[in-house]
Structures are given as C-alpha cells and as structure tokens.
C-alpha cells in the first residue's frame, strides 16, 4: 500500500507576513510545496492531502494545487478554528481567530486518509532522502501498526540567521524516540552561540542535538491517541485565544501511554524554510542551486 503525504498548510504566517505556503521560489514560480510533493511522489507516495484555510482556497488552487493535481493524486481539506468543536465549544471559543494547531489539523484530515501517512510542514524543506526513508518504511507496515516513525535533523542544520525558530528537541534510545521537548525560541546570539529560551532560562545548545521538524510517519492507529489528546486539550484550553495542540506533544503521548513506539530515523540534510520574509531569497537561491546541479528538473510538472 502506497503511503499518503499529509501537508500542514493552514498556518497564519504571522512572522512571515503573508501566505508563505503559496509564495513562488522556483524558476517557474513554483512554491516550496511543489518540491516537497515532487520528492514524495518520486519516493513512492501515492497521494498528497493538503490542509488549508478556506480563505486561501482560490489562491491555493491557482498558485499550487491545480498543477499538482494534474500530475499526482491530490486533494485538500479545510481547517478552521471551529472544526471538530461542539456548539458549546464554539461559543466558548468565540474570541479565537486562529486554528488549534498541528494535531487539530491532522484530525481535520482524518477522513481523507486511508493508508499510513507522513506529515510535513508547508514551509520547511526536508530533502528527498527523508521522503525516501519514510516512504519505504510506511509502505512496509500494517495500516494499524503500533510502530510509527519520524525523521530527526541536526539542530545546527535547521537554524535561521533571520530570527528565532521553534524546534522539538529529541531524546533517543536504541533508535527509538523517548521524548520531545518543545523549545519555542531558539536563536543565534551576538556571538553566534545557539541559545534556547526555555522555562524562563537561557540554555546554550551545542547545535548537535537531534530535533523534530514535524516530519512524522504514522499508521492509521495513531488517530486513536490523537483523538484522546485532542479531547483532553480542548477541554482545558477551549477559552484560550492562542493555545495550540502540537503534533510532537500528541506523538510523545503515544510513547508515554504505551500505545506504540516511534522509530527514529535521521537526516543530515541542511534545512531551509520560509519562516521570515528575509528567508525567501535564501530559499530561491537554494532551489536554483539544486536545479543547476540536476537534483531537480527545471520544469517539475507537465502542464
């Protein structure tokens, strides 16, 4: 069974200042997601599902989806702040203007997924090696397996010179994930040291830590634990204007509740992404260099 690629593309882009999911960075104005989808297709994935906001649907179709759908099995679903909520929860969260985070997004796409699936962010470049690793693994497991997977990256390869980043720092034992601790603000200081602000303190990082970039591979069994996590989360945070149900936390619960394991694969690929406006030119240069080297064809898709 060919796995599905699930793309989290409903974010608000507050730091970037625009809809970065569909910003052109390729030689023919392709988006970063064009290249991720192309890599997944080449790595044995059979379908892509995008999670988007209703308000960007028209631009999303014009700028990205329609050309991908001509070349690959593709669909999209919507995530809004009232998705999956009861009428009472909708009333209690009336001041909420943004969706509820990445676990909420995955649950919004549940009905569109009928095979083991990988999850990616829309604004990160992962490299084809990671898709090949997860594609091979997900193709080999039972759809209801309790053995999930992720691909971790070296922290120093995932930093931005444009500002702080959020990363989940991983503890790994025997090639299995033990825990993920969300570090919401990691940055270079004036001396080029990597600093993480966590629990009210500044912690110096080595740069060699393994971190999560939200590149996970799950069987369909994972939805059971995601529903449990979501129900607990929303009951505690329904009135919060900013709280987010984060996928790394829900994934960690699979381990903590003895509901399965998460195999830890690694990649030494250098990350780049669209976190800040300044990143766009960096991404364009990186993509152009990969095309020049033959890693990507100049024209990704047939028209």
Task: Give a brief rundown of this model.
It is built from eight helices and 13 strands.
Structural class: alpha/beta
Strand content: 25-35%
The number of E-state strands comes to 13
String of helices and strands? EHEHEHHEEHEEEEEEHHEEH
**Main pleated-sheet profile:** 11 strands, mixed
Approximate helicity band: 25-40%
Runs in which pLDDT lies below 50 for 5 or more consecutive residues are 12-18
Rounded to the nearest angstrom, the distance between the terminal CA atoms is: 28 Å
**Coarse shape:** globular
Give the count of helical stretches: 8
Calculate Rg over CA atoms. 18 Å
Q: Mean of the pLDDT scores?
A: 92
State the main characteristics.
single chain, 303 residues, alpha/beta, eleven-stranded mixed β-sheet, 27% strand
Structure notes:
The chain is an alpha/beta fold. The chain is built from eight helices and 13 strands. The strands form two sheets. Strands 1, 2, 3, 4, 6, 7, 8, 9, 10, 11 and 12 form an eleven-stranded mixed sheet that branches. A two-stranded antiparallel sheet has the order 5-13. It starts with a strand and ends in an 11-residue tail after the last helix.
């Amino acid at each position: 069974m060919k796995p599905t690629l699930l793309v989290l593309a409903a974010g608000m882009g507050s730091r970037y200042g625009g809809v970065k999911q569909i910003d052109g960075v390729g030689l023919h104005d392709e988006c970063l997601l064009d290249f991720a989808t192309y890599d997944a297709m080449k790595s044995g994935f059979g379908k892509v599902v995008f999670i988007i906001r209703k308000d960007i649907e028209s631009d999303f179709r014009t700028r990205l989806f329609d050309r991908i759908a001509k070349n690959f099995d593709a669909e999209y679903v919507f995530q809004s702040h009232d998705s999956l909520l009861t009428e009472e929860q909708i009333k209690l969260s009336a001041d909420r203007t943004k969706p509820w985070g990445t676990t909420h997004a995955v649950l919004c796409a549940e009905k569109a997924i009928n095979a083991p699936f990988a999850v990616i962010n829309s604004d990160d470049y992962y490299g084809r090696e990671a898709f090949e690793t997860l594609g091979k693994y997900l193709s080999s497991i039972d759809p209801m397996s309790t053995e999930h997977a992720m691909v971790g990256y070296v922290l120093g390869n995932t930093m931005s010179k444009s500002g702080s980043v959020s990363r989940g720092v991983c503890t790994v034992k025997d090639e299995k994930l033990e825990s993920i601790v969300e570090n919401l603000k990691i940055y270079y200081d004036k001396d080029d040291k990597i600093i993480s602000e966590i629990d009210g303190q500044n912690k110096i990082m080595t740069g060699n830590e393994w971190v999560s970039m939200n590149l996970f591979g799950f069987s369909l069994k994972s939805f059971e634990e995601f529903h449990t996590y979501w129900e607990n989360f929303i009951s505690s945070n329904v009135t919060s204007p900013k709280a987010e149900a984060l996928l790394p936390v829900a994934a960690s619960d699979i381990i903590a509740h003895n509901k399965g394991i998460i195999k830890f694969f690694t990649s030494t690929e250098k990350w780049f992404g669209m976190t800040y406006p300044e990143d766009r030119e960096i991404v364009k240069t990186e993509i152009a260099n990969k095309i020049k080297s033959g890693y990507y064809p100049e024209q990704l898709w047939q028209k």
